Amino acid sequence: MRRILPTIVPTIVPAVLATLLAAASVPAAAAGDDPPVVHSVSDISQQFTFYMDGRFHTQYLAGIGRDVRNWGTLHKADLSNANLLILTAGDPHVPYADESIRHVMRFVREGGTLLLMGDGADPMPPGQAVAEAFDIRFTTGRAVTPLSGVGELAGAAIAFRRGTVLEPGRRWTPLVADAEGRPVLATRRFGKGHVVVGSRGLFGEKPDASDPINADWITPMLVSRADDKAVDPDRRLRPMAAELSREVGPLLVEFHEGTEPYAEAIGEVYNEVRPHLVELTGVEPSPGMIRSLLILPTGGGGFSSGVKIAIGAWWGNYPERRYPMVELIAHEAGHSWVLPYAEPLWNEPIATWLGIKTGQRMGFPEADETLQRQIAKARRHDPDLTQANPLAEDAHRDVVWGKSYFVFEELERRFGPQAMGRYFRTKREVLKPGREGYSMDDCVAVWSQAVGEDLFPWFRSLGFDVEPSRTDLSSAGSGG
Ligand SMILES: [Zn+2]
Questions:
Q1: Between 347-361 and 365-381, two packed helices, what is the crossing angle to 10 degrees?
Q2: What's the whole-number mean pLDDT along residues 206-235?
Q3: What is the average pLDDT value for the chain, to the nearest integer?
C-alpha cells in the first residue's frame, strides 16, 4: 500500500486485503438461528474504496445479512439472489453504462432495494445518471444543519457532517430533510422494489466507525425494505470478480469494461519496470509471486498481496503523467521481491526506493526530486542524520523515510551501484525456509555479509538502535 487518499486506509488491513484479493464473500454470523434476511451486493466496480469493500457491510448489516462485492462489470452482476444493491455516485473516470442502469432498474422492478449514496458536484458524478433513471437528482446545494427525520424517521437523531440536497420527482418521499426543509435522503417504490437515495454524509466517514454513523435508523430502514424480496439463504451469494483479463507478458491483467481503457497500458508499464527491478535487486521476484495485476477503479493508490498487485487506474493523473504510475507499480511489485521476509521498518521505504530508482533509470526527473525532497524532510528533524533513531516508537515518519533513502543511497555510493542487489541475493541465501521473523538486527547482519563489512557501527552512528548480539545471523562479511 502507498500514498492513499482519505477514502483508502493508509495501511494494509490484512483481513480486508485478504477479502479483496480472494474477492471472497464474508458471510456474517446470523443473529440467533435465523437465516440472514439481507443479501447485499456492494459495488466497487464504479469506484474502489475500502469503505465499500466491507466496511459498509460491517457498519450496518453484519449479523443481519450477507454481503458480496461486485468487482466486475455491473450489468453482468448476478443479482437474482440479492435483495439490496449498494451503489455510490462513482468516479468520473467510469460512467455508469446504460446497460448497467437498465440492469439496476430491472433489479428494483423485480423487488430489490437500491441504496445510492452520493452528493452533487460540478460536474455531476456518474451516479446522477442512475438517480435520474429513478426521477431524482443530486444538486450542488449544500445541506444546512441541523437535519431532521421525516415521516417514518420522524424523531430520529440525524448525525451529518456535510453533503448536498436532493431534487426528487413527485413520487418520492423525503426521509431526512435539512434545516430549510430540503430532502437529503428520500425513498420511493419502483415496481415491486424500493429506491433510497441520500447524501454520503449520512453514512459515516471514519474507517473505524468512531464517528456517528446513524446505524440505529439506517439499518432498520434498509432491512425493512430489502426483506420485501425473499432470498434463498441456502444459495450462496457469489462474489463477482473483475471478469476480463489479458496476458501482458508474464502478468495476467484483470479488469472490467469500465477499467478496460487503462488495462493494457498499465500492464505494459509493469513490463517496462520489471527488468529494472531485476537489475536493482539482482534477483527475480520471490517464487510464486506477482502473477496478476488487478486494475482498480480509483486514483487512490495500490496494494500488494505479493501474488497479486492492485493498481489504481488513474493514480497520479495517469496517463497524462507517467512517473507516479511507474513509481507506484515498481513499489507494489517490489513487495513481491522482499517476501517472505519483509524488512521491518523498511517494508514501505524499500518499495518506494525501488520505484524511485526505476524512475531514475527510465529518465524521469521527478524521481530524483522525490528522493532529494524526502531526505531534506528528514534533515529538518535530524540535520546530520546521526541523532534520531528511526526504530523508536515515536520516530517521525519523515525521519523513517528520509533516513532510509539516505542509508540506501550511501550504501550504493560506498559499496557500488549493485549494493542493494548484493543485499537481496545474500538475503535469499541466508534466510532459510522455516525461519521465523526478520528483525532490523537481522537485516543489518545480512547487509554486513552482503557488502563484506560489519555495518553495525555505521548504522549505530546514524542513530539506529541495532545490536549484533540480538541476531543469530553473522555479520562477518562474505563479500556477497
Ligand atoms: Zn507498499
A1: 140
A2: 92
A3: 91
Gap from CA of 68 to ligand 1 centroid (Å): 26
Q: What percent of the chain clears pLDDT 70, i.e. is strictly above it?
A: 92
Region 246-269 average pLDDT: 93
Could you give phi then psi for residue 196, rounded to 5 degrees? -125, 125
Q: How far is the CA of 303 from the centre of ligand 1 (A)?
A: 6
Question: Are the C-beta atoms of 5 and 316 separated by less than 8 Å?
Answer: no
Q: How many Å lie between the centroid of ligand 1 and the Cα of residue 165? A: 38
Instruction: Delineate the domains of the chain, giving CATH numbers in brackets.
Output: 24-226 (3.40.50.880), 244-470 (1.10.390.10)
Q: Within 10 A of 162 (CB to CB), how many other CB atoms are there?
A: 12
Q: What distance in angstroms lies between residue 277's CA and the mean position of ligand 1's atoms?
A: 15
- Residue 119, beta-bridge partner list: none
What pLDDT, on the 0 to 100 scale, is given for residue 8?
Answer: 34
Q: How far is the CA of 136 from the centre of ligand 1 (A)?
A: 41
460 C-alpha to ligand 1 centroid (Å): 26
CA distance 236 to 404: 48
